[in-house]
Amino acid sequence: MRALTLSQSHKMANYYEVLRVAQDATGAEIKSAYRRLARKLHPDKNNGAEDTARRFAEIAEAYEILGNPKQRAQYDRRILDAQFRGNGHSVFTSTNKHANRWRQMVYERRYNDILNRMIAEERREALAFQKVVYPLSAFLVSTVIAAAARPHIFASSEILGKILIVTLFAIGVIHLVGRVRDGFVRYTSYDDNIHDSILDDRDRKTPVRSRYAVAAALLGSIVAAFLVGWLAGIFLTFPADLAPQAFGRELSPEFIFYPPIITFFVDLMHSLAARVERRAADVDNTGLFR
Asked: Model-level pTM greater than 0.70?
């Protein structure tokens, strides 16, 4: 999509040009552009130069608006109003009823596009957050379960069974690492004084945290989940009583195989359910804005 051009008479800042992105840029592209410019123009990196400080303030203001789907939709609506009501082309003052009807149809179509993009962006953000939260939650819960149940399925399996468990374990680890990496990139930052937003953390749905602090908290959560499961296994021996061929009374090192495997299947089911829900929502939105 071509870059937006506004007439000087409206004196409206073009935030897309400030961040050097297209008007149809995704939220991830806008964030990436902001961070790239912020690293280049941050006052701490330019000895407090006035011109770079002014530009840094401009990109911060632009990201505050474009980085929020609802505020971005409101901003795009103002731009749309300026385009259709300025320069003597108002849909409300045209004397040609056919031209007036055509411009009104174009206006409504573009406004619907804005709404659709806002809904799609919010849906992408929700799905991205779920892709991080669901596997991490499943991993912690499955760590408790594995440490408490104390399975020895691997030890009692034939060679093909052992190969299958190791293969699923490798797939689960790769999958989990990918999810954690995506979460770190999206929701954390290094302590480099380059902020993802000038908004206060209280105003953000998903505050950006230090990667070191989040990594420490995640490691602590895993250790805590293991300890809870280990203590529970001391008192709850019914898995070994019900299926002694699959579970034991002593904790075996092989328990580490199972949390990544369980996490992989839980996240796979969630992804399939989310895909079905997304397709149903797309059908509903198509009918709503048709």
From this structure: no
